[in-house]
Amino acid sequence: MNKYIEEKIQTFKARNKNRARLLINCPDQPGIVAAVSQFLYGYGANIIESDQYTMDPMGGNFFIRIEFECDGLNEKGSQLEENFLSVAEKFNLDWKIMYVREIKNMAVFVSKEPHCLLELLWEFQSGNIMANIAVVISNHETARDMVESLGIPFYYIPSNRDIRKQVEEEQKELLEKYEIDVIVLARYMQILSPTFVEDYQHRIINIHHSFLPAFIGAKPYERAFDRGVKMIGATSHYVTNDLDEGPIIEQDIDRVDHRDNVDAMKKTGQSIERSVLTRSVKWHLDDRIIVEGNKTIVF
Amino acid sequence: MNKYIEEKIQTFKARNKNRARLLINCPDQPGIVAAVSQFLYGYGANIIESDQYTMDPMGGNFFIRIEFECDGLNEKGSQLEENFLSVAEKFNLDWKIMYVREIKNMAVFVSKEPHCLLELLWEFQSGNIMANIAVVISNHETARDMVESLGIPFYYIPSNRDIRKQVEEEQKELLEKYEIDVIVLARYMQILSPTFVEDYQHRIINIHHSFLPAFIGAKPYERAFDRGVKMIGATSHYVTNDLDEGPIIEQDIDRVDHRDNVDAMKKTGQSIERSVLTRSVKWHLDDRIIVEGNKTIVF
Amino acid sequence: MNKYIEEKIQTFKARNKNRARLLINCPDQPGIVAAVSQFLYGYGANIIESDQYTMDPMGGNFFIRIEFECDGLNEKGSQLEENFLSVAEKFNLDWKIMYVREIKNMAVFVSKEPHCLLELLWEFQSGNIMANIAVVISNHETARDMVESLGIPFYYIPSNRDIRKQVEEEQKELLEKYEIDVIVLARYMQILSPTFVEDYQHRIINIHHSFLPAFIGAKPYERAFDRGVKMIGATSHYVTNDLDEGPIIEQDIDRVDHRDNVDAMKKTGQSIERSVLTRSVKWHLDDRIIVEGNKTIVF
Amino acid sequence: MNKYIEEKIQTFKARNKNRARLLINCPDQPGIVAAVSQFLYGYGANIIESDQYTMDPMGGNFFIRIEFECDGLNEKGSQLEENFLSVAEKFNLDWKIMYVREIKNMAVFVSKEPHCLLELLWEFQSGNIMANIAVVISNHETARDMVESLGIPFYYIPSNRDIRKQVEEEQKELLEKYEIDVIVLARYMQILSPTFVEDYQHRIINIHHSFLPAFIGAKPYERAFDRGVKMIGATSHYVTNDLDEGPIIEQDIDRVDHRDNVDAMKKTGQSIERSVLTRSVKWHLDDRIIVEGNKTIVF
């Protein structure tokens, strides 16, 4: 990675060495907030942000994301987690703590159209995407130059339906080598096999170039044009084994009119795809997304 | 109709007594604009607005909407139309002239939810919808008071699938009695029979409470909620005999999030439905919409 | 008030008899959330919604809005408040508890243009504005019919700069008579005197027909037109004694272009004004707004 | 320039060798459209797009932009222009013909923040900005690498108020050397001298980081934060000698809330600045903008 970005990352880590996020998902019941906030207070933690949501006030699930600052977190962290077990048990919590200083390793998969990748790289360079973009994997050579110019390794792995198994073997080796936490499909036009998807459950983010559930599958702009819609959209979602049916993270749209042919729609759409995907990636990196069933809660 | 609205309509008619709109749809070829504008100039007409669109620069259809002002139009109109026939023949034009002073007679069909009707009535009162809302027909009594308070006749015709034929007979009598030019389905939850639709081709405007083609058919908000979308929308379209498949006139959307249950989505959606339907009705009344195949050109 | 609305209000009160909102503003320090949530838990209260904000993580102010459900709140309320004093004292809290069943009494002031009032009345009728619109006061007769048709008292008090003192005396008598909690200036084109404003600090909501701070003062649409802007907006804010300088609650905009003259801008603007004002009023009624200095925190 | 972009430009020129745009601004009078379209028809030209606008139907100015395709335009062009003089004289037209194959030479001025430049370069690479970005001039070295990597000359000219005269001399030499048609100030934080501005009247496009006329001048995000606005914006305009008062081309906004500090506003704002400036540049390159007084007509 180039020196300039490396420096930004180090500054970020230093500034956030005492910062963590606690995510909880559990059956709703009185006393959870009291118990958790009391526990954190006991460690001298100051709650910086807290968002909560009760799925249905009477009897549903309860979700909370707490971001806190705690002196000496590096040293206290593991003990804090251990002691939290009793709280977790009492309230039957599904929980995790994410340390902000441990930035995530990201792999980007891309095919021929580089606009989404470019936006990610640009936000990465600007310090707005705080991850380690460890590797870019593509079934085309198009993006090699722009990726390598930032000091990021680029792997060209040609791909098609017939050799998927072998391709995914190579990809998995790279994902392991670079200890990847999250995979971003930045207009990667290949379908992943079920086992691949399961290995990275809720950790593969895809951008689909339509306002889902309209125009699931191939050629959404062509079909939007044929239907004569007045708006086109893009949708980011976690990948599941039902094509374009995974939990939606974010959507956005823009206006088109009768003057826009398919090419014009694609150009407009690229701009939406770029921003929708980038927002989703940022939320994922900030641990703002909780998946519940086939939906997301975005705090 | 009450006196205040009647007065607005008379003022509008007087101010527009020399104003007309010429709509043309024809195979593209050089010389059309020259011939048409030369023709209008010959009558002393001044072109106020002109919008054109060529479907595909090489070999497609050509569409133009010209709004013009012409002294003594009331007297010259029929002669102008007669003489235009030779131009129309030469270029094989599909055309019509609409006189702005001849405001359209509108019928509104509504079921239980009155929000779209209310918006139309409010825009009507404000002079923003320049039509004669001649009659409101409903299969519920809910809206009677608000309609009659404006001096508009209200007819309650209970309806269901089994008695559709008889209901439509009654409706058609009313449409004839009030010489209706355009029907607005302002959340009218009954399906119209094929012959009814054909009698008013491209003159029945419906509002569907989803971002079509997502959630065609019943209970779109419920299905949007189940899918976990991050935006909900509404779509206005001309009614055809394929449910929710008619030419789209306008669409709009608004954001929702995980906190919004079905009821909250409905409330947000009502606001979108109101504005999308109202915009469409205004465009129709201004003769801004040309239907071509299953699409609209909105000038 | 008419029976239909009265019924909606009664249902709302019954459904929310155990619901309250606790609003806190205090210097940031560890332990607040723990103490407050522990306190509520002690009363068997279940936290339904909680939003918090720390102005500056290191040393700024802390704000929280907690909505909770508590069995027997009607009986427990005063004791709960009394016992909360010790928590409040310990953390130096500026706080209040609002009981959802105690819906607010609202007065609407309006001049000649009724669009904002109409939107409020429509949302009121629909049960989306849960307040008691107790009185409408106007310096024009325009709105009398629509107001009285809902059973709401309407007072016509002609007004101008020279008789402001006397006019405000009459207005204040009405405000006292109807025990008004919040005043909405729904395009009321008169300036209120400083003492009037002070008596209702952070309880008078105004809609200004521009995107503040652009076009402060009179004739904003005319000035927007002269400047050739490509978007117009509206701003709602709490009234202070600096004209159009009070804490902004909400803003929105819409596109205009060179074809829009001042009248067209006004029509577009009315639609923005309606929705911006209505959103603000709902947030105020839901106790979602905390004023801090000259800014609002909207939870 | 790199080979890939060069190729795109050549393809574009070849495809548009017979395409031109006629822009007219004149006093309104009947017969203009007829005369102009008749004239073009006489040359066998086919009108592809035509947009017109009459400033005030009774007695104002008339504006039209006609895009046409004409076989052998390269050869016929000068004769066509010569013969058009008689039409122009008859109707007192202010007019110009722009040949689409003659793509414009663009200079970009930038200071420290590269986001707007980057967006322009990215759209340039993608073939969405059809100009020859001939030179980038900056008073910082920040952008050198990204510019030179595309084969575009980059000049570092340190600048401040005291040496403005000398700096502008150097800049002007470069503008002449590269035969610049249009200058884009992509967050160039220096004020240009009056003579410089006059030399490039309506050919210098600036992006201002606020929703003008709010926050004219320095530090708009800081002032937006202090005022507590709920939306921030950006404005592109042609540069005149009144700071931030030139004819507005485009504006856009995005939402912020109490959680956004100045830095967060800047990041949100950068995204708006990028898209607003890029849209404006595209419209300028497509000859869609006519300046009239201190306003723009954007066709």
Automatic annotation (TrEMBL), chains A, B, C, D:
Enzyme class: hydrolase
Superkingdom of source: Bacteria
Residues making up the signal peptide according to the UniProt record: none
GO molecular function, one term: formyltetrahydrofolate deformylase activity
UniProt-listed PROSITE patterns: ACT (PS51671)
EC numbers for this chain: 3.5.1.10
Domain ACT: 21-105
Catalyzed chemical reaction(s): (6R)-10-formyltetrahydrofolate + H2O = (6S)-5,6,7,8-tetrahydrofolate + formate + H(+)
One family name in Pfam for this protein: ACT
Record pathway: Purine metabolism; IMP biosynthesis via de novo pathway; formate from 10-formyl-5,6,7,8-tetrahydrofolate: step 1/1
SUPFAM superfamilies in alphabetical order: ACT-like (SSF55021), Formyltransferase (SSF53328)
Keyword presence, Ion transport: no
Active site: D244
Alphabetized CDD domains for the sequence: ACT_F4HF-DF (cd04875), FMT_core_Formyl-FH4-Hydrolase_C (cd08648)
Keywords from the UniProt entry: Hydrolase, One-carbon metabolism, Purine biosynthesis
Classification via HAMAP family: PurU (MF_01927)
Family the UniProt entry places it in: Belongs to the PurU family.
Role according to the record: Catalyzes the hydrolysis of 10-formyltetrahydrofolate (formyl-FH4) to formate and tetrahydrofolate (FH4).
Protein name, entry field: Formyltetrahydrofolate deformylase
Gene: purU
